[in-house]
Amino acid sequence: MRVGVVCPYSWDVPGGVQYHVRDLSEVLLERGHEVSVLAPADEDTRVPAYVVPAGRAVRVPYNGSVARVNFGPISATRVRRWLRDGAFDVLHIHEPVTPSLSVLACWAANGPIVATFHTSNLRSRAMAAAYPILEPALEKITARVAVSEDARRTVVAHIGGDAVVIPNGVFVDRFASAEPAPEWAGRDGTLAFIGRLDEPRKGLPTLLAAMDAVLRARPGVRLLVVGRGDAEEVSKHLSSRVRDAVVFLGQADDSDKARLLRTADVYVAPNLGGESFGVVLVEAMSAGTPVVASDLDSFRAVLDGGRVGRLFAAGDVDALAAELVALLDDPDRRATMRDAAATWVRRYDWSSIVGDIVEVYETAAAGAGEVREDSRGWRDRLRR
Asked: In CATH terms, are 2-169+349-376 and 172-346 the same topology?
């Protein structure tokens, strides 16, 4: 099958959608499909052979973050040329309401279109305002996919209809087989956080505030922080004790991220909201690292209601500190969580996920009408 994939966000800036597009494309290629990805990127940016750069991205505030997107008449011309040259059996557009290549492709395309919705934001004024303008393009979509129940509810609230829920995928074995980095470990335990330092909804300030209490109980704890942002700006607001316990590692590649998660005793996800899935939680569990996460709906689903990870009230510094100290103090409890998670995460492995996506492609390409099933199939599968 010839599959055209549209990524709305800049290829060279790490993000959940970009990782999803990259990993899915590589799995499809391994299975013998032909794949071409159109993504914002400078012509001189080093990209995989299957990626077609569509030009430089610009920064636009979106959903509590900053999206790097590509839009305009030149981009529209490139989209039309790519669609014409690709002659795709199915077009897979990610985030079709994002003002970037995805919208342009939806407007320009003819033929089967599969759209994946990643965003969770039931109160999105931007999406509500944009829908009347985008409606003619969105009506061309043959099959809708949402990466979570939260993302599905966002689709229902703002666009109407329904979507098949197919979650993000992870290469479980790559994280499970990574080598730990003993030089990063703390004497009294190691915590890990991955997220942009300058994005408040990722919750790093909550975790840093909790570190005072954690360090009183376990003075040798080390917190490893991975992500883009100004570490010096963050550090200057910390007490000397917390500053000494935190190691800012900057942006990590896939290999270092896996080693970080294998090294940590606990992965911490103190996010405040705006998360539709929580792929890093799955990555941590794949690496055998117990997870403590904010009690967001999306995180609760990934952690099976708290069965395979610990949940605390989002933004509650004292509750987070108590969870971390209790877990660091109890290696048997961590081992129990690790064992439960090891089985649970297999349902998120790309070897399982890709089959569901290809099935949607085949149904859409066969012209069997719109694919707008509800998500009960995945919900039932998750309960087994």
From this structure: yes
